[in-house]
Amino acid sequence: MLPLHARLSILCFLLAATLSASAAPTRKWMVHWEPTKLGNGSPVLFEITAPLQLTELRGSFLGQEFSFRSSKACHCWYGFAGVSLATGPGTYTLRLEGKGPGEKEATMSYAVAVAAAHYPTSALKVAPGFVEPPKETLARIEEDQATKKKVFATTLPETRWLGQFKPPAEAEVSGVFGSARVFNGVKKSQHTGLDFRVTTGTPITATNSGTVILARPLYFEGNCVMIDHGQGLLTMYLHLSEFKVKEGDAVEKGQLLGMSGGTGRATAPHLHFAVRWHGEYLDPRTLLELHPPEN
Ligand SMILES: [Zn+2]
């Protein structure tokens, strides 16, 4: 077996850039991403330098298409993508399609390695009604599911977030993303958010700009706010005691959304913060650690 760097350079060679005949390359493609080591469940920020002056750049990765934005700060194009929790370890192709002035086009394929992320197991005790919901709550839960289905079905076409994402609360983390949740001794699911240890009444703020697409009480989530940041990226703020925004509001990064609490399926007051991208939950901590250009 060849060492990893040798295998990667062979892959990069095999997936070398292709330029259409009309495109006169002035420089090379450069592809970087954050975090540098990708695992399943991770958001990804791609930064691209193209060989042409492009007017538009689109990408596809792991079956999702997305558009890039140009930035004066980095003289590059950047785009947001994600690796679902269900993605197995392996090498996946990032495909880029750029348009330049006139008929110029440039395409590129790049090999991106994804490793298996290691997530812990955590045991929790909650009121029995939240593990096996009582019959009389089933209609309510079904209604919630219909509401969420409707909300998830549409997303703003344009990107509304800009720059680094800001933590939703000034508090320490009490539960990580990806851990297997064992409720009252029964394995139910994987934890799809990041928990912040906050007492009831702590201000919870928007991690970035967007539109409030949901601000209402739900059975499991409790009082819940969801923000659409555009192009399939949503953030969610659960178990609130109070709302400070309503559905349809445009919010800016850092704007007060509500006050923390312990509503819904919560063992104690805390904030459950989740990141959803095209229907997949991604690690919020990684999102908060990305460094997208500020302009
Ligand atoms: Zn949680």
Distance between the termini: 44 Å
Question: What share of residues is helical?
Answer: 10-25%
Mean pLDDT: 88
Q: What does the largest sheet look like?
A: 8 strands, antiparallel
Q: Mind telling me the C-alpha Rg?
A: 21 Å
The helix/strand series, from N terminus to C terminus, equals: HEEEEEEEEEEEHEEEEEEEEEEEEEH
Strand residue content? 35-45%
The helix/strand class is mainly beta
Labels describing this entry:
6-stranded mixed beta sheet, 3 helices, globular, 8-stranded antiparallel beta sheet, binds zinc ion, single chain, 295 residues
Question: Please, could you describe this protein's structure?
Answer:
The protein is mainly beta and 295 residues long. 11% of the residues lie in helices and 41% in strands. It has three helices and 24 strands. The chain has helices spanning 4-14, 138-153, 284-289, and strands at 18-19, 30-34, 38-39, 43-49, 56-61, 64-67, 69-71, 76-82, 90-99, 105-115, 121-124, 173-175, 180-183, 186-190, 194-196, 203-205, 210-218, 222-228, 233-240, 242-243, 250-251, 256-259, 271-277, 280-282. The protein is globular, with a radius of gyration of 21 Å. It binds zinc ion. Zinc ion binds at residues 175, 191, 193, 195, 272.
Helices and strands in order, then pairings?
Layout: H1 4-14, E1 18-19, E2 30-34, E3 38-39, E4 43-49, E5 56-61, E6 64-67, E7 69-71, E8 76-82, E9 90-99, E10 105-115, E11 121-124, H2 138-153, E12 173-175, E13 180-183, E14 186-190, E15 194-196, E16 203-205, E17 210-218, E18 222-228, E19 233-240, E20 242-243, E21 250-251, E22 256-259, E23 271-277, E24 280-282, H3 284-289
Parallel strand pairs: 3-10, 11-13
Antiparallel strand pairs: 1-10, 2-4, 4-8, 5-6, 5-9, 7-8, 9-10, 12-15, 13-14, 15-23, 16-22, 17-18, 17-21, 18-19, 19-23, 20-22, 23-24
The structure holds zinc ion.
The site of zinc ion has 5 residues, from loops.
